[in-house]
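Fold it.
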Amino acid sequence: MNPTDASAGGRSSGSVPAAEEKSITETTSTKSTGPYDRAFQQNLIDGSVYPRGYKYPDGRIPRKPANWDEINHRLAQRRASLSSSKFSAGAHETFVDADSNAFKEKEVGDSVIPIIGGRFKDARCVSGGVPFRNMAPLTDGTLVPGNPDIYHGARPEQLDQQVRSRLHDHIVPSTQDDLPMLPNFFLAVKGPDGSLAVAERQACYDGALGARAMHALRSFGNDEPVYDENAYSVTSTYHGGQLKMFTSHMTQPTSPSDRAEYIMTQVNGWSMTGNPETFRQGATAFRNARDWTKEQRDQAIEKANMRQTGALC
């Protein structure tokens, strides 16, 4: 027997007693909770991050964002690329075929989602599958980092470097500096065998991180944090041919000892495989939401840059 190994009836002189070793392990490691864990949603709720359909203990329903009508009006605006002449019944059949033959989450992301999303201008403003390890914890620090399947943000060089440095743990998701920052448009994708409940928990978490990022930048340079009850973060889920879309917005704490709340509100849902017209409506909303969230990012960045240089008081 190797002299460093414990014998059948004893223990090597350098080993740690089993009970003590167990105690050390329990005190030096903490189990992280993720969207696949049943405790994940309650952790969010305990941290004032409320999922779709949440009601307060007294029966009250969280308020919709103050810019609810503006968002819905924008999402419904027609797009020439999705007119009946540009996106025909045959094109929809191609989409349905792609969806029917996408058996895994990656296949859905690779062959189905690009048809919904269409073309977009800047590939450097989109990423996904990257854990948001650089961001400060949203609740009590036990949740795994956010990790959206797809997210859109701004190029880092759009924002003044000093502002990025000061707000980095709220607006910069990853230590890989060239990835998009200020994420506020997200998509959670699941394959046919995936869980819709998991997708919605992921969407709730991602959307809140986006709302906090936008809040941090919009508040930069102000004497007090800016709470306007508006939504600037949009998140969607795709599962089994169904596209759902949600807003996420922050509400002002009611007292100095309270924390801000994050409210997830469903905008709509579309059966994308059902018929061409429903697909057009869902894809229109998805592409318009992507464009609208970019506009919100760009406006917040412009104002933060101006405050940093003193051009905006």
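Residues 276-309 form the longest helix (34 residues).
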